[in-house]
Amino acid sequence: MNTLLIIDDEPIIRKLLSRMMELEGYEVWQAVDCTQGMRQIKLHKPQVVLCDVFLPDGNGVDMVKKIKLETPLIEVILLTAHGNIEDGVQAIKNGAFDYITKGDDNNKIIPIISRAMDQVNSQQNSNNDLPKIDKKPLQVNSFNTIIGNSETLHRVEELARKVADTDIPVLLTGETGTGKEVFAQAIHSASLRSKFPVVAINCSAFSRDLLESELFGYRAGSFTGAMKDKKGLVEVANHGTLFLDEIGEMAYPLQAKLLRVLESGEYIKIGDTSPSQVDVRIISATNRDLKNEIIAGNFREDLFYRLSVFQIHLPALRERREDIPLLAKSFLARYSEKLGKHIDGMSSEFLNAITNAEWHGNVRELKNVIERSAIVCDSSLTLQDLPFDLQVPYSSYNSSSLSTGVQNSDDAKSFDFELAEIERRHIVRVLQHTNGNKTEAARLLKIGLTTLYRKIDEYKLNK
Questions:
Q1: Pairing with 377, which of 23, 231, 277, 348 sits 20 to 30 Å away (CA)?
Q2: What is the number of other CB atoms lying within 10 angstroms of the CB of residue 378?
Q3: 70-74, 116-120, 398-402, 456-460: which has the highest mean pLDDT?
């Protein structure tokens, strides 16, 4: 289990954050000051520490340095109600994973803790000095693992096969959950670079400075806490492939450094004075319209044209519905084995429901629904094993029904008139759409993250 220590002298904040992270599956300990925090670290050895800056017996910025000296594998995130640039810079130099203000926690805290945990797990599982990020290596696979017989998918796969054995950059576009990472791996596996590493990084997961550090590395002594040279992902992926997911989220100033890699194969490590040379293929992906981002001034036009020499748009699942039964059967076989259950296929009503669903989360959402259904089913997947909103599609609530009202008692039985039940179902639907990402769900619902957690507790959605 992932482990977290929260150090904060405000009991309300400490307990709220603890409850939030426990709902995310973390084992959480608490401390009220630096002294108690250090005791908890020695006793429990947490993987990540979330620490307030202003504590009764010390300063969190100074405490970062002490923690990193005694337990360098622990990642420390500083949380403060009064952020300032000087403290933030010093915290990062002392070895902090990130520095955020309490006013930002609704949007940032859970993703940041998750990334810090990924960093710790990567470090613990590695026997070398590679950068440790949200960067589990992509699973080894090929075009043979891309499931579907639709003409739409075949056209996309044919394009990917043709570009695979070249060295030109590829830009994968499409909605969230359409399989961009799977295609990136398939292209690498079929390329002449397949014997060398493929390294993935999500550009939205890091601030500008941290992303620059992870991509290009740094020299020892370039800042306080940089005790030795660190390789960047560009160097790790040398002769192989670098997959840049969510490329549209990369900070504008950093885009110029990436452009230099594409144009000349050169990059400069932080703290270095001379460029290093690299031979790497770049595959990038985005669910944004980068041309609109260029117009808005958020993305460099010259970088776009370098990245999109060969652009492939991946279709949404609703654009290849004939592939849904094949995907569902594949996921069912996987989860049957994982759960140790014998499941006798899917009923025709179940297949009909999932084939006609909208799947705004695409393949990722379908996979989650199949796993959920496999958990709750008895012997085979039936309509009742689906989430309620997939059992009764939105088309059932047509405009005529809404305008004329419920026509008879039989119709009335199919509706739930309690506002709380309607709210509960809507929250469930949004959580399924965001793949369980509560921060994103709160944004879509236009409510605070703490409000969402309160409703999850109220409706017992975490059971």
A1: 23
A2: 11
A3: 70-74
CATH code, domain with 111: 3.40.50.2300
Question: DSSP for 2-15?
Answer: -EEEEE-S-HHHHH
Look up the CATH number of the domain holding residue 402.
1.10.8.60
Which token pair is 60? 């969190």
Q: Which residue has the tokens 């609530």?
A: 397
pTM for the model stands at: 0.58
**Are 207 and 297 in the same domain?**
yes
- E-assigned strand segments in 96-197: 98-101, 170-173
CA 407 to chain CA centroid, Å, is 45
**CA atoms within a 13 Å half-sphere pointing along the CA-CB vector of 345:** 6
Domain boundary pick from 94, 124, 154 = 124
Averaged pLDDT, 283-287: 96
- Is the domain of 114 the same as that of 193? no
Residue 178 pLDDT greater than 60, yes or no: yes
**Cβ contact 281:239 at 8 Å:** no
